[in-house]
């Protein structure tokens, strides 16, 4: 089972396309949608929903995958649920770069402060990070610098922030899920 978390652009048709692409490596791909506007509510909802999805599956190695803001959540929710995660162009600091787009950006900082201290060290090796060199939203050099000591980081030379095609990464994702 692969749980898919969309980014801030929840209604983009690219989300459906990515989910269809992921079905090439796992028949059971499920969208877990969330509001994107209210971080504290999103956190609680995602924790509960992902727990329910895991409980309803017999997959011994479920995976959570998120793009952009979904990558932010996939890392945290994956850690808290004890499952592997794939972070594609994760937005690691939404409190800094989403002001004006969300109602309460300070809630992201509060979530970070309340998260398990050094959770990345405890989660080491349980996430795969895929970064686009052509990302027009994130500074992925900073993202790599933040995550490289904890997770495998792979670069893509073709994709932009929305990462329209996962084709070149599907086998990498499958191998990570199955490892």
Structure characterization notes:
With 179 residues, this protein is an alpha/beta fold. The chain is built from 8 helices and 6 strands, in the order βαβαβαβαααβαβα. A 6-stranded parallel beta sheet has the order 2-1-3-4-5-6, sandwiched between helices. α2 packs across α3. It is globular and about 40 Å long. The two termini are 14 Å apart. The mean pLDDT is 93.
Question: Can I get a quick summary?
Answer:
This protein is of the alpha/beta class and 179 residues long. Helix content is 41%, strand content 16%.
What's the alpha carbon Rg, rounded to whole Å? 15 Å
- Total number of beta strands: 6
Strand content: 15-25%
Query: For the terminal residues, how far apart are their CA atoms?
Result: 14 Å
Q: Label the structural class.
A: alpha/beta
Helix residue percentage: 40-55%
Q: Describe the biggest sheet?
A: 6 strands, parallel
Question: Are there runs of 5+ residues with pLDDT below 50, and where?
Answer: none
Number of contiguous helices: 8
Shape: globular
Averaged pLDDT, please? 93
Q: How are the strands ordered across the major sheet?
A: 2-1-3-4-5-6
String of helices and strands: EHEHEHEHHHEHEH
Kindly list the characteristics that best describe this protein.
179 residues, alpha/beta, 6 strands, 16% strand, globular
What is the strand and helix layout of this fold?
Blueprint: E1 2-5, H1 13-22, E2 29-31, H2 39-55, E3 63-67, H3 69-81, E4 84-88, H4 94-97, H5 106-114, H6 119-122, E5 127-132, H7 140-147, E6 152-156, H8 170-178
Parallel strand pairs: 1-2, 1-3, 3-4, 4-5, 5-6
Helix pairs in contact: 2-3
């Amino acid at each position: 089972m692969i749980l898919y978390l969309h980014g801030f652009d929840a209604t983009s048709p690219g989300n459906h396309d990515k989910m269809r692409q992921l079905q090439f490596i796992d028949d059971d791909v499920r969208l877990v949608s969330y509001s994107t506007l209210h971080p504290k509510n999103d956190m609680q909802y995602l924790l509960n929903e992902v727990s329910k999805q895991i409980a309803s599956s017999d997959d011994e190695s479920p995976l959570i995958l998120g793009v952009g803001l979904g990558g932010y959540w996939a890392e945290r929710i994956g850690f808290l649920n004890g499952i592997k995660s794939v972070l594609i162009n994760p937005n690691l600091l939404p409190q800094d770069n989403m002001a004006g787009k969300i109602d309460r950006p300070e809630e992201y900082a509060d979530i970070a402060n309340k998260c398990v201290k050094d959770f990345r060290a405890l989660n080491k090796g349980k996430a795969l990070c895929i970064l686009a060199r052509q990302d027009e939203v994130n500074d992925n050099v900073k993202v790599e610098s933040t995550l490289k000591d904890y997770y495998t980081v792979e670069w893509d030379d073709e994709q932009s922030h929305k990462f329209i095609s996962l084709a070149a990464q599907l086998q990498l994702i499958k191998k990570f899920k199955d490892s």
